């Protein structure tokens, strides 16, 4: 059975793309077959997996509007995950899809054609709550919300959770909100912990274990277009590997490991 996980938060810079790429690469290392979907017109996931969005002639955009078969658009990557890439064309998909009936189901329908080839599908949602994110949430079994542990991290979370509830009511009753992934976490101060515990209490959101620490390496990896997991030894990569392990155990039927706040 294929597990489809959406990584969503309409706020930019909370590490949605880093989480998608890193968990994907970590799962692939554990011999899980993984498809990652770039739903952001900026194409950051596509770029970080070694493909230049500016030179691609086909992308998820063509798939969503029915102009290409998904199987003809998929790309291999050095991280051993398969990529459904994005290009800037996707910026026009909002408008094109809006005129179509069943527009929230376009990605779900496309993924159904290839899902049997993958154990896990990860969907990197764009920084908005528009029709692309609705497609991601409609196609997913589960969603996680990366949260950067800084002041005002809670802003927008209520709105996102309302969108998740609406999707559950209308297009995807089976969608499960797993919780938040704490990103750019600084364990040396109490600030990250305070912010996280505040958001978790306020919205009754479980925090997946482990939090992902801030690492200089990650910023470098993404800037160069190289995979975030390639510098295998850094503590961010180690944390993502553990998160991937915990997700696998959850998919195998065990309770999802969550972060406990201790004083
Ligand atoms: P989003 O997809 O939510 O916009 P990104 O994954 O693109 O966020 O991350 C935003 C920026 O933060 C990127 O420059 C990325 O390299 C950096 N980043 C992400 N995770 C970490 C981390 N654990 N430590 C340091 N920098 C990080
Ligand atoms: Mg992103």
TrEMBL record:
InterPro entries: AAA_dom, DNA_Partitioning_ATPase, P-loop_NTPase. Residues 3-176 form the AAA domain. This is ParA family protein.
């Amino acid at each position: 059975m294929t597990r489809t996980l959406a990584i969503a938060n309409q706020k930019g810079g909370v590490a949605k793309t880093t989480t998608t790429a890193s968990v994907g690469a970590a799962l692939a290392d554990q011999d899980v077959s993984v498809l990652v979907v770039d739903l952001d017109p900026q194409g950051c996931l596509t770029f970080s997996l070694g493909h230049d969005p500016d030179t691609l002639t086909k992308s998820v955009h063509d798939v969503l509007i029915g102009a290409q078969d998904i199987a003809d658009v998929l790309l291999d990557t050095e991280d051993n995950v398969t990529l459904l890439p994005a290009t800037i064309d996707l910026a026009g998909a909002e408008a094109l899809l809006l005129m179509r009936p069943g527009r929230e189901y376009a990605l779900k329908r496309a993924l159904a054609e290839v899902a049997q080839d993958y154990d896990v599908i990860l969907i990197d949602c764009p920084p908005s709550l528009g029709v692309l994110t609705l497609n991601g949430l409609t196609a997913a079994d589960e969603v996680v919300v990366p949260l950067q542990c800084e002041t005002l991290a809670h802003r927008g979370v209520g709105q996102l959770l309302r969108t998740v509830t609406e999707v559950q009511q209308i297009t995807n009753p089976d969608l499960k909100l797993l919780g938040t992934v704490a990103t750019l976490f600084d364990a040396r101060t109490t600030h990250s912990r305070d912010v996280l515990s505040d958001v978790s209490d306020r919205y009754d959101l479980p925090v997946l274990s482990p939090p992902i620490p801030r690492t200089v390496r990650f910023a470098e990896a993404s800037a160069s277009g190289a995979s975030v997991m390639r510098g295998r030894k850094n503590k961010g990569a180690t944390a993502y590997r553990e998160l991937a392990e915990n997700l696998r155990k959850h998919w195998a039927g065990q309770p999802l490991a969550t972060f406990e706040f201790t004083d």
